[in-house]
Amino acid sequence: EKGTYPHYMLKEIDEQPAVLRKIIQAHRGPDGGLWLEEDTLRAITEADRLYIIAAGTSYHAGLVGKEYFEKFAGIPAEVHISSEFGYNMPILSERPLFIFISQSGETADSRQVLVKVKEMGHPSVTLTNVSGSTLSRESDHTVLLHAGPEIAVASTKAYTAQIAVLSILAACVAGTKGKSIGFDLIQELGIAANAAETVIDRKEDMEAVAFEFLQLSRNAFFIGRGIDYHVSLEGALKLKEISYIQAEGFAGGELKHGTIALIEEGTPVFALATQPELSANIRGNVKEVTARGAHACLLSMDGTAEESDRIVIPAVHPLLTPLVSVIPLQLISYYASLHRGCDVDQPRNLAKSVTVE
Ligand code: F6R
């Protein structure tokens, strides 16, 4: 039930800190350290390469997950759009493991890949919010997201849950391989949950941003580098699906290779600059677009922020920023949709789970 909330989406955005805390609890072992079901952990650890398969928002979470598997555990990982994978299969490694990410566990595009790789005899893990869903039943292992029912068509809390669970999976695999990830993940996820709460408390400011930057816009750009680039794709998807504003996410450095031609007086550009070592580069890209008339909204993090940055999230571990930086983007999309009179929870042409290929 949405209770006092005007929309499920707003309720689900608000639930994110609690979901993160629930995930931490669910993966805490008796010794206080990280825990993952043993068979699942073994299956991932035995693989020489991971193939992450997903669609839409879950694909965007997969892009972040790849970073965790490679940086924490040293396992190469590829992320594929499920609808493309079936007929465009890459050369597989000797011991591949497939990770399906699906909030609903019912996405037909992802299921057809699962059917195919099962026929080939490859092991699979499904990350889903719905126990007993098709993908969960048909894959070898399931890891639950603990996000609770997600009703709004636009996915919010499932995305952050997927990213948190992926970080835990990767850290557990690192542990099994005797690798140190260099920080205390449980503690840092807790810090991220608190930071998420802080951002959620700034709704009025996000509403003001939506009004200032998007009230009259027909299009918008989201740019970022590294992990911020992955989040920029998700920010753009959220905005287009519920506000019908055409939005694109781009790697900061790629914009000048063509897309910058679209920047004109007043074009909104949301630039993510949370990564300390990439901050100078992305700020350079912001200068390029503002010189051409763009209306830039900078989103940075305490520690690397500059005076003029419009949105500053509290400091979290640089690899966990997506858990927090996506929230202002979700809220901005929400308010943009609301003020344009769109149907926030039930956008046109979309269904919550896409059960056709
Ligand atoms: C976007 C959205 C969709 C889903 C996609 C995959 O807000 O909801 O892009 O993420 O259809 O759905 P699942 O995760 O259920 O496989």
Automatic annotation (TrEMBL):
Residues at the active site: 352
Cell compartments where the protein resides: Cytoplasm
Annotated keywords: Aminotransferase, Cytoplasm, Glutamine amidotransferase, Repeat, Transferase
EC top class, as a word: transferase
EC identifiers of the protein: 2.6.1.16
Catalytic activity annotation: D-fructose 6-phosphate + L-glutamine = D-glucosamine 6-phosphate + L-glutamate
Single annotated GO MF: glutamine-fructose-6-phosphate transaminase (isomerizing) activity
Domain SIS: 40-179, 210-347
Its biological purpose: Catalyzes the first step in hexosamine metabolism, converting fructose-6P into glucosamine-6P using glutamine as a nitrogen source.
Quaternary organization: Homodimer.
Protein name stated in the entry: Glutamine--fructose-6-phosphate aminotransferase [isomerizing]
Chain's gene name: glmS
